[in-house]
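Inverse folding, one chain.
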């Protein structure tokens, strides 16, 4: 009587392969991929930052157009949604909000200077929130992360946000483009440094 092959061997082999995939070698490959992605993202952000510094008004206008298109599109979508629910209790509120969003978007497209000035205030506030998040992350990850870069990035972002909020209206376009460029370049260098650090750790651990 011939012996049957053990059916449990394949399951044990599968578990062994999974354990190997999620073991130190698998973790190293994941870290290496994350490091490569961070390095590539850093290079892209740095290039965009340099282009913004070369043509600040172009960068500011591009941001204004993007925001205007987004607001106008959202307004049209909300108006169309309201038109399909005439008996809905919140019909008029939804319709008014959609109309306001559409008008704001069209105003940013038709009068880009006024749109840029409005964006300056919004971006200044957003940069301050971003700076707070980066500084908190730098403090929390100071033992496992190149936190000096993140700390510097957070401080620089806070300075940029403060400058935008205190800028004169006539300088809004140039300042917005320049500060967007500086912020992109700073963030790009931070991502690149992080990616390089992760790749070096994986290389050193082999």
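Residues assigned per position:
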């Amino acid at each position: 009587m011939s012996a049957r092959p053990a059916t449990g061997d394949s399951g044990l082999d599968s578990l062994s392969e999974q354990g190997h995939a999620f073991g130190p070698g698998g973790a190293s490959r994941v870290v290496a991929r994350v490091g490569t992605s961070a390095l590539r993202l850093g290079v892209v952000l740095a290039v965009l930052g340099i282009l913004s510094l070369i043509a600040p008004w172009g960068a500011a206008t591009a941001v204004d157009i993007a925001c205007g298109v987004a607001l106008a599109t959202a307004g049209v979508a909300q108006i169309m949604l309201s038109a399909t629910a005439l008996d809905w209790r919140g019909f008029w509120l939804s319709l008014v909000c959609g109309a306001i969003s559409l008008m704001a978007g069209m105003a940013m497209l038709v009068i880009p200077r006024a749109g840029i000035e409005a964006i300056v205030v919004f971006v200044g506030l957003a940069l301050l929130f971003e700076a707070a998040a980066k500084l908190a992350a730098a403090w929390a990850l100071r033992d496992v992360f190149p936190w000096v870069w993140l700390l510097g990035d957070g401080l620089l972002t806070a300075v940029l946000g403060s400058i935008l909020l205190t800028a004169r209206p006539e300088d809004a376009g140039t300042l917005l483009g320049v500060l967007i460029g500086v912020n992109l370049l700073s963030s790009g260098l931070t991502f690149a440094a992080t990616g390089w650090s992760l790749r070096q750790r994986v290389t050193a651990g082999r």
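Residues 172-205 form the longest helix (34 residues). The chain has a mean pLDDT of 75.
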